[in-house]
């Protein structure tokens, strides 16, 4: 059904394009609270009737660069912003400056997501304690401590790394692998953590006898 | 032959000494009788000894399992307000005082709190009692300072709130204490008031009994009992079973035996834990430890003199002197105890004067914490009964550590109750008898944080979170769409929102309709889900096939049997709120299924680990497919059926969720999550009658009220490997450009985004994009993409 539909529509678009009036020329402009700044400006092209929403934030469009790891959808018709685009560009490696912050209806102060370990002394202390527990062979104690850390900072990849490693040492290979894979999801965008996690997954798999899987994980690690 | 000889030999002896034989007969009889008596006594002795031992040793350990809430972790940077802390401290029975003086007390300021924690013997490592200064800033805890050690601490665990027990069939409850835990004056007061010669008698006190008899004789009625503490203990042992005469007669020998066998301190300790001190409904309050919680909501060692005196006063008659029902009598008797203590020189005149001035200080609500979490305890018990025998749960004194968050629980209770009250007012007669259920979990760990089983949040009966199996309506749709996305559909695949007739196996024809009874022609997949269109969903589900939808639901965590009827696609299947939470948990955890957990660990009474329920998960759906559905679930809240959420909540929460209304509007559902909270709400009626509102009018306001109080962290849907974002034209679903009107970014599996693009003139632009702020690299990047 969809295969039929797409060419048909594409054809229609093509045809209207030929008639030099793109599909949006007839689309009524969204009412955006009646602020003059929001009035769409015609593009300086020869094509009459083509209306493009300007990119210049001064014209009422804000572009919100966000961290590479987050995909945050915006609400289209939230005053006072017309459009809040949040392009996700893989090129951006560091958190973007706050200059393009969204013009949202003054959000209440919110608790921010779990901080990175250097900020969160509690998690640092728990991770350190768990490391000592592990070294002394008390894997159960380490596990308990890491689960405490997980509750406090569930977006901290290192917690998953250590928890997976403890489960590996306990011989719970399937659990260990799954925890590490979850860590991979959490570590998205942190190359070093991703590399360590994939190396750990490779180790878990080879200890569990899954040599092909271990090889896959090794290759995945090599990509970071 | 031997017989004959005996006969012949006996005859002459009898005849020769007739007189002597009478004596010998009498002596023999006496001997036999005394032997019999000795045997009888021995039997009694052995019997009483066995009874005493059984009761003393067996019953001392018949302890109900203790169920604890999660301990509150305090750490710098933690989202916690002073109001939250106050709630927690109240649940723990802390005393709010002008100046902190001992464990279990706290002083709360504007931005600062000073608390003296009690410490707790956690199974992993003990948490010591500490004097802490907590600095708050806004809605965060900023700093924790140990006043005694004079240093900042990274992490402190408060003691966990005891939320309930699992009682044996006799419904006895106990909070075991050791003799050394008894507060000052408790033992002195007991001995002064109940049994002055306790340390010198042999279990019974003849002096005491004769004095009591004399007093009673003179008064002409029963005024004074002569029982020693030992005898009282024995009486208490049999308090719950029948009280027969034989038991009564056995009391004296048993008291003697007990006094011989056990030390005075052992008997006293047993007494402290056994004596009957009150009644809470069907639950008997035994022992000073539990009585302290029952009357004062505080641990026994923290009681003041006047409170200790009241408990001792109650020994004589917990019902007659009940401080809640008969405060005058209780006060008189308490003051009598205080005066006796002074007369005996145990307390000073000053202490007496101060204590006499104090009120009874009994907490009004009979049990501050116990009984406050019936639905959650129900969940915990069901889990425990899978792994433990009933006898063990009721007698072994097990410690059960759960993940219940009392703060979240109280917010969930309040959100449901207040919203339903408002709805009833608004809808008048049509809004009568509304019921509801709420399940709150942590989407990152799979722990159940709170559970509301109905509108009467303290009702220990029908638990709707677990047992109300109701059609889930549109809550099923994300599973249908996810199955389709796995099969190669994209968020912009066009769906047909056209009438459909399906012939069912029984010959009936099923003609589903959209909620607004309209058809919407061709709609893009993400929009069909956000707007919760029925017809396009049925078309889609039938295209991919019911078995695939069922398989997806199973992987998401639905364990019950699912019939492969087309009506499944619109949520005709009944499920409990907890089951729905289990399913949505998998969405929230990027495709990892985490069995929902309410118990973290079970230990023996001594804190030795018996079983733990660790963090476990299994990837059931690839993260990239779940990412697509998460986008659509966020769209539901931004622009779809749940958009009223952002009238109440900050829009940067990025809530993902789905509304659900069952057929004929009998059930109102909402399931949704943020970064750290997932909640499923059901609103409906027990008689299954039609509601005057849909999901947006019932369950959604409850959910919103909960989250408004909860202030959760925003959802961060991290972009997994294999996902790319492309600008898409909203109307056609074709590729577009950020500069084109009506375009938006949508996620796609790499390589699956549409290739064809609309043309809004973006290809005719000058090579350099208009100078703007951060948009330049992106504009270039997107333009390159097309070429």
Question: Termini of chain B, distance in Å?
Answer: 132 Å
Instruction: Supply the helix-strand structural class of chain B.
Output: alpha+beta
Can you count the beta strands of chain B?
A: 32
The CATH topology annotation of the largest domain in chain B reads as Beta-lactamase
Largest beta-sheet characterization of chain A: 2 strands, parallel
Counting DSSP H or I runs of 4 or more residues, the number of helices of chain B is 24
CATH uppermost class of the largest domain in chain B: Alpha Beta
User: From the helix content, strand content and strand pairing of chain A, which structural class follows?
Assistant: mainly alpha
**Main sheet specs of chain B:** 6 strands, mixed
What would you give as the CATH superfamily of the domain at 121-222 in chain A?
Answer: Tetratricopeptide repeat domain
Oligomer: heterodimer
Largest interface: A-B, 89 and 95 residues
Write the CATH homologous superfamily of the largest domain in chain B. DD-peptidase/beta-lactamase superfamily
The average pLDDT of chain A is: 64
Given as residue ranges, the uncertain stretches of chain B (5+ residues, pLDDT < 50) are 1-10, 769-787
- What is the CATH architecture term of the domain at 121-222 in chain A? Alpha Horseshoe
CATH class of the domain at 121-222 in chain A: Mainly Alpha
GO molecular function, one term (chain B): penicillin binding
Domain Glycosyl transferase family (chain B): 170-340
Active site (chain B): 194 (proton donor), 474 (acyl-ester intermediate)
Domain Penicillin-binding protein transpeptidase (chain B): 436-681
Topology, please?
The complex is a heterodimer of chains A (224) and B (787).
Chain A: H1 2-18, E1 61-63, E2 70-71, E3 83-85, H2 121-135, H3 139-152, H4 157-169, H5 173-186, H6 191-207, H7 211-222
Parallel strand pairs in A: 1-3
Helix pairs in contact in A: 2-3, 2-4, 3-4, 4-5, 4-6, 5-6, 6-7
Chain B: H1 2-16, H2 18-60, E1 65-68, E2 73-74, H3 82-91, E3 95-96, E4 105-108, E5 112-116, E6 131-137, E7 140-146, E8 151-152, E9 156-157, E10 162-166, E11 172-173, H4 186-194, H5 206-219, H6 229-237, H7 245-261, H8 264-274, E12 276-280, E13 283-286, H9 287-296, H10 305-314, H11 327-343, H12 349-357, H13 374-387, H14 390-395, E14 399-402, H15 406-427, E15 435-442, E16 447-452, H16 464-467, E17 470-471, H17 477-486, E18 494-497, E19 502-503, E20 509-510, E21 521-524, H18 525-530, H19 534-544, H20 546-556, E22 574-575, H21 577-588, E23 592-593, E24 599-603, E25 609-612, E26 618-619, H22 623-638, E27 656-661, E28 667-673, E29 678-684, H23 699-710, E30 717-718, E31 723-729, E32 743-749, H24 776-786
Parallel strand pairs in B: 1-14, 3-4, 11-13
Antiparallel strand pairs in B: 1-10, 2-9, 4-5, 5-6, 6-7, 7-8, 12-13, 14-24, 15-16, 15-29, 17-22, 18-21, 19-20, 23-26, 24-25, 27-28, 28-29, 31-32
